[in-house]
Amino acid sequence: MTATTRVRRAEVVVPAHDEEGLVGRCVEGLAAAVGHARAHGLDTRVTLVLDACRDATGTVAADAAARAGLDLTVVELDACAVGRAREAGVAAVRARLAREAAVADEEVWLLHTDADSVVGHDWIVEHVRLADAGADVVVGTVRPDPADLGPERTRAWAATRVPGRPNGHVHGANLGLRLSAHVAAGGFDPVVAHEDVGLVARLRALPVRIVASDVVDVLTSGRTEGRAPHGYAQYLRERFTQAGSAASAPC
Questions:
Q1: 8-state DSSP, 56
Q2: What is the pLDDT, as a whole number, of residue 108?
């Protein structure tokens, strides 16, 4: 990878499956982050992938984007697999970049988050700062919403974190990489879970620089029944509840 190449374009991909209750705040957070990035001279776009949505996720997202002045590209599919959804978003990004022929793959920073998550206003800018400092991949931290966990479980979760010492766990809700690195690693597997972990595992076998950072922290849902099996919701359920119920089926 050409790790010293400066980023000229940021592209955000957000998969969503039946997230009408949370996608609005996700889009609002992204709009603020995009505005901040553009104020720093960084061309930034957002692609939302509606995967097997049976609720009003698309309508809620479109309304939130319109209110916030965010130009949102929407992709629809019926895969019910987050790996396929993320890759469909990346495919849409690559098709748009090919039409524009404006930037090289190594100049594009590809960011991933989830529809149940809220990024900070400086999320994109901080990711790109790390990229311009030499990162090809940034593995960011997440924090569960205290409103979902409650005070006791929030304190228990906080005890597992040491500020300034990110644990390096891979979260699709906070992952960034050069588009060239994504292509070199073969993209996301078409799976229902751990597509993010699989991609980073392949990246570790390549000559790329992977940086773990808690500066780009992202707020995510603290629910214990998630959309994807074996995901962050299962981790919260098993680690911070005495007796968790079974996770709901993704579709």
A1: S
A2: 98
